[in-house]
Amino acid sequence: xxxxxxxxxxxxxxxxxxxxxxxxxxxxxxxxxxxxxxxxxxxxxxxxxxxxxxxxxxxxxxxxxxxxxxxxxxxxxxxxxxxxxxxxxxxxxxxxxxxxxxxxxxxxxxxxxxxxxxxxxxxxxxxxxxxxxxxxxxxxxxxxxxxxxxxxxxxxxxxxxxxxxxxxxxxxxxxxxxxxxxxxxxxxxxxxxxxxxxxxxxxxxxxxxxxxxxxxxxxxxxxxxxxxxxxxxxxxxxxxxxxxxxxxxxxxxx
Length: 254
Prior knowledge:
Oligomer: single chain
Radius of gyration: 22 Å
Structural class: alpha+beta
Number of strands: 9
């Protein structure tokens, strides 16, 4: 099996489709996530538990964690307490498979800059893009097998990310480490109307999730740097007694 970025949801559905009546689906999904996720990301991926009830349209993964990338600290880069799925069961054997909603609750994530100003999550997004390009090259090769109409395709109508706890580590560039809570956000209609193959859906979901977190982390970074510049100027003005300038600076900061 290719070393792909394995989306948690995709693995549930693929394993569920193949092992529809098998009682071992939970252990198989857990193994798939850990093995292929670790291979694809070049960092250790672990899962505490998996509970799949495909006929009930229910899936849950608990205790997901991903180790940080090489060149950064040893703190985990990403972790989820719980991932819950609402799977459409009306046409479970037809393509595309419809996932009504995925809820990822209580994400803990580290956005860390190294001494060169490169973010760990940016590196991860680059790896996802590189993996996608590599797979496309393989698919376009002359001896590759053509896609079949019966191939698994999946649509995710809504991906909701709730209560993201962000550790913003700027110590490598002479700043501090900050703890922030990011607002809930949602990504809709992943896979369009026809759906995407598992590999492509996994990459699309991972990139969308990380892009959103990176965007919010960068905004927090700008706010912290702006606050630090203002604090430094206020300190200098206090020392020089510049009351009028301090008033203007406070208006500008607000």
